[in-house]
Amino acid sequence: MKQETKKKTEKFSDEENNPCLKEHNMSLNCLSQNHYSPDECQKQFQNYKLCKTFWNEVRRYRRINGISPLLPPLNERESVKAKYFETGKFS
């Protein structure tokens, strides 16, 4: 495996860099359990898409507002989600 590909794979298999790792794994497990029939896993796919959309918006907000790192630390993510669901805002 090329070094660059290995680094990319490691990056996205780490919850610190991939806030949707749980949803990603749930989608893959569903596919595996249902003989790779995507029709059986639409809920998991939709959940994963919603997760990615949410965290991409968080990144976008933080980038526009000069907040670094673009993803909040693991220990702050639940509070970011809770605040967003309560107020509809990231700040």
Automatic annotation (TrEMBL):
Basic and acidic residues biased stretches: 1-14
Stretches for region Disordered: 1-20
Matches recorded under InterPro entries: COX23, Cys_alpha_HP_mot_SF
Entries under PANTHER family matching the protein: COILED-COIL-HELIX-COILED-COIL-HELIX DOMAIN-CONTAINING PROTEIN 7
Chief location of this protein within or outside the cell: mitochondrion
Similarity remark: Belongs to the CHCHD7 family.
BP GO terms, sorted: mitochondrial respiratory chain complex assembly
Annotated protein name in UniProt: Coiled-coil-helix-coiled-coil-helix domain-containing protein 7
Superkingdom of origin organism: Eukaryota
Keywords: Disulfide bond, Mitochondrion
Keyword Endoplasmic reticulum carried by entry: no
Gene3D superfamilies the UniProt entry points to: CytochromE C oxidase copper chaperone
Cellular component per GO, a single term: mitochondrial intermembrane space
Compartments (UniProt record): Mitochondrion intermembrane space
